[in-house]
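The protein record filed below.
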Amino acid sequence: GVYYSQLDWHHPAQENDPAKEGRQAYRFNRMRDGMKARYVADMKAQLRELIQDYGVEVIFFDGEWVPWWTQEDGRDLLCYVRSLNPKLIVNNRVGKRKKEDGDYGTPEQEIPSAGLDYDWESCMTLNGTWGYKSYDDNWKPTKTLVHNLIDIASKGGNYLLNIGPKPDGTIPQESIDRLKEVGKW
């Protein structure tokens, strides 16, 4: 499986806010005029390569929160990737995180109190941020991770834990330690 963002942080079709610094500058809110069709064509070409050339069987879409990505865009993209592989498993972020979007739900940083009446996985971080931040020392204790795993599994869900690698690609030792402890449990 692969993670795929409808929001391409570096594509020329995206518009950012140059007044903000660092990663915030890449919080794209709009598609530049007239470029959406070209952008979607580029996206479909990338997805075709992943599915046909690399045999991807699961796609976790993300980035659907940008205003220019619509429910209809999601339906179109889902039909497209399913035309390439009808058995492809796709999360609900291909659309706008609605029950009818994709094959399963993806609540983020929460565990639904009673689970969901369809397939789902809770997506959570090991600390406070999705990507690597050298200053984020808000690591969840192993006890919390195990409790979350039990709670989610007891409600029929899957537990997706985000691991933000360092800029050199290595995994932070705090992540390694917690994952080993959960595995030992």
User: Anything to note?
Assistant: Confidence is low (pLDDT under 50) at residues 21-27. The longest helix spans residues 36-54.
